[in-house]
Amino acid sequence: MTRHHPDTLTLMEFSAGNLSEPHALCIRLHLDQCPHCRSRVDTLDSLGAVMMESQPQVGVSSDMFDAILSRIDSEPDMTETYISTQAKRMSPLQKLLGDDLNALPWKRQLGDVSVLDISERFPGQNEQVVLQKLAAGGKAPAHTHRGSETTIVLQGAFSDQKGVFNQWDFVVLNQEDEHKPVAVGCEDCITLSVLSAPVKLTGTFTRLLNPFIR
């Protein structure tokens, strides 16, 4: 079960079609496995359609915005009744990368970390889109972020000072966050991240490598 979700504002941006293609992919992957967030987006889609039909020329006031947020938060949780269609269709991840994440042409980066930059698969985007694999039981170098980083866990799990992030969990980090992820469980942890700027290594020795990090 997913425990870490996109916030309401992010889901609103997704519903409105305002997210970049890589960010929207992260949301879609989460929604495929999270009936709670899927229900919230369905509500947002419905509310958006009603607003477009009834008030096509009227902007959204702050009171209306707050009312929409309250409406979304009050919607019943459909987790128990949601039936996933994942098995009936090819997921966006399969279309992009195929069925076996472990068979991808990974490149060893530092210690227990391997990476695969797939930014070229999103032409016209300014963000870096990268897959990261942390070996089972391994530790990633301590780092912070020069910009924002949106991550979804595709396989396995990792932990840091904020808790444990399992498969399909969603996390957003920024310049205020410094962490050192550790892969937990018996399989490699694979994540998909969208970065607005390169990470910044903060370890005693690894920080010397910052000039070489894209």
Automatic annotation (TrEMBL):
Domain ChrR-like cupin intervals: 102-192
Highest rank taxon of the organism: Bacteria
Pfam families: Cupin_7
InterPro entries: Anti-sigma_ChrR, Anti_sigma_zinc_sf, ChrR-like_cupin_dom, RmlC-like_jellyroll, RmlC_Cupin_sf
SUPFAM superfamilies the UniProt entry points to: RmlC-like cupins
Record-given protein name: Anti-sigma factor
Organism: Marinobacter algicola DG893
